[in-house]
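Morning run. Coffee first, then this:
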Amino acid sequence: MSILRTRKTNRVLVIGLDGVPESLLRRLAGDGTMPRVAELLTRGHLSPMTVSLPEISAVSWPSFMTGTNPGTHGIFGFVDFRPGTYDIRFPQYRDLKARTIWDRLGDRHLRSVVVNQPSTYRARPLLGAMISGFVALDLESSVFPPSLLGPIQRLDYRIDVDTHRARADHQYLVRELDSMLEGRERAVDHLWRTEDWDYFEVVVTGTDRLYHFLWDALDDSSHPFHQGFRDYHRKVDAFVGRLVDRFTADCGREDPLSGLFLLSDHGFTGIVQEVQINVWLRENGYLSYRTREPTGLDSVTDDTRAFALDPGRIYIHRQGRFPRGRVGPEGAEELKREIAARLMELTHEGRPVMRAVHPVEEVYSGPHAKDGPDLLLLSHHGYDLKAKVPEKSLFCRTPLVGMHTWDDAFFFSDTKCDGTLDIVDLAARIEPRVGRG
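And here it is:
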């Protein structure tokens, strides 16, 4: 049953386009592929943006939705160490240590609808409704309130593509991306009509999937999925256009653009080589294993001084932090400087691999910064940092053709953003607009 919503004024709509670079959005708007976005750009401001390190959705989306960096919100990657062990765990929404935009809006008795927000599995209570985005393992634990599950299932809603199948079957990928986008729109329509909301957010993650597997189709007109690449962006553009039209009619603002925001959580570029950081650490004497075929970092020796987790996080093997840690506080600082300097000298075919190697204290602030990595690596575009165990080659390739970038993300709003814009800045720009002019 639809709810009368005449009391609602000054609503806000946020549209996330996962991984879409500012440069690509501007390009596709300019060449006619995304005409509705092009229309928006004539009325508002598109700004380039940097994001959190590491430049992955598991970290950047929590930074957006809390307005804090990982040192405060406590999420450092898709995987992390269980405290005091070498065991790997998968952080979930319950591990987020800072409050979100919609948590704070609830304090003001303002209702939120959040659709397909990455890093919100398992869905937890809020004043409104939520459907978790990836990495969500099942739909049953991805919806709040629980009464929403039945309607969403009947809409044939899908959380994500089968990424393992998509690596080899690009026809499946393109077909499934279309189906997922249609399911998102059905869910949006249902929740738009049935929820009495003040803040509405929906994230399209199909763009990220497309880029990982088919980035090379963008500029190669002979690529069998060149047209499919552009067609998907036309469909995303039409989806954005329909949302904007609906918002314009319902937002309760004199200027609807003042309540409309679009963003991405990182940029994208093509892969030149994948770079295995644990191989580099092993080859340079910082890491060794107790077995010939290690299956994880629990196989490191007592002599190990450093190891890495995806995508570019180096941890010093510290006394007191890890069971066999051997590096004391003074030695850790010297070791960090040494590893950083040597990594900055790493080259591939004469090209430098690293753009920067940051001590964590240069990047993170807050009570949980000590729980993160010791060094954060930022590569030049094209060098995709990995930390697989085991891996024999420093430089390698997989079926992936696209990688994330720290820069070249985007933010669109009615206000020009002066200076450097970072994803942690967005909550403070968006949240005050909800329920106000």
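The longest strand covers residues 12-17. Good start to the day.
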